[in-house]
Design a protein that fits this description.
CATH superfamily of the largest domain: Histidine kinase-like ATPase, C-terminal domain
Order of helices and strands: HHHHEHHEEHEE
Radius of gyration: 24 Å
CATH architecture of the largest domain: 2-Layer Sandwich
Distance between the termini: 31 Å
Strand content: 15-25%
CATH class of the largest domain: Alpha Beta
Strand order of the largest sheet: 1-2-3-5-4
Oligomer: single chain
Number of domains: 2
């Protein structure tokens, strides 16, 4: 009877582990499908809509050169030009938020640099970024590069929304076997009871993805008083069992 109970418990534990593995795989596939869809939409916005808006700007410039406009007409043309400029800027921003094309075209190092510079400009938070191993970062496999980039993006978003920080420090380093990311701020810091609750920082999906790739992920209080995120993702992911 005891042996039978042990056997049943072992089968139940095996079934639970298999179910958890399947859920991790499903979560990873959903994230990959979302990234592919975002990439497609971003390229359509950049290539198709971007070209149409550029053509409109050229046509408007052509009209300005050929129309002798009174004050009202000239004002309307100027207003149309300003609206077109804002539309072009919004299209570029939305496309970059969906999927920065330079991540695919130029690699993780350039994409991370652009993301941090853009974040600093928009938020007013001073940022310092240090890159180590640019060559490895540039050649990182797409799933790894995407995961690290999204983690950096989400970390910066949380700093802007919740930290009350004035400065952030980012270190993105690559070695032969893995990529490591550290993001630290000088804000109010994460509360002890929130550590380990990734969903409270909007990073639950990233934690799952990093774990699936065989990486590590942690959030803690930083020595400067703010929050520090650290992650490590192998360049040749071994899918977690």
């Amino acid at each position: 009877m005891i042996l039978r109970d042990i056997t049943l418990r072992k089968h139940a534990e095996d079934a639970l582990r298999e179910s958890q593995r399947e859920l991790r795989e499903l979560s990873a596939r959903v994230l990959e499908a979302r990234e592919e869809e975002k990439t497609l939409i971003a390229r359509e916005l950049h290539d198709e809509l971007g070209q149409l808006l550029t053509a409109l700007k050229m046509d408007l410039s052509w009209l300005r050169e050929r129309i002798t406009a009174d004050g009202e007409t000239a004002g309307k043309l100027a207003e149309m030009g300003s609206m077109l400029d804002r539309t072009v800027s919004a299209t570029r921003r939305i496309s970059a938020d969906l999927r920065p094309l330079m991540l695919d075209d130029l690699g993780l190092a350039d994409a991370a640099n652009w993301l941090v510079d853009d974040f600093a400009r928009r938020s007013g938070i001073r940022c310092e970024i240090k890159l180590e191993g640019d060559g490895v970062l540039t050649e990182a496999p797409k799933p790894v590069a995407t995961t690290v980039y999204r983690a950096l993006q989400e970390s910066l978003t949380n700093i802007a929304r919740h930290a009350g920080a004035k400065q952030a420090w980012i270190v993105l380093a690559a070695e032969d076997e893995a990529i490591e990311l550290e993001v630290e701020d000088d804000g109010r810091g994460i509360a002890p009871e929130e550590i380990g609750k990734a969903r409270s920082l909007g990073l639950k999906g990233m934690r799952e993805r990093i774990n699936y790739l065989g990486g590590t992920f942690e959030i803690a209080r930083a020595p400067r008083g703010g929050t520090r995120l650290r992650l490590r993702v192998p360049l040749k992911p071994a899918v977690a069992a």
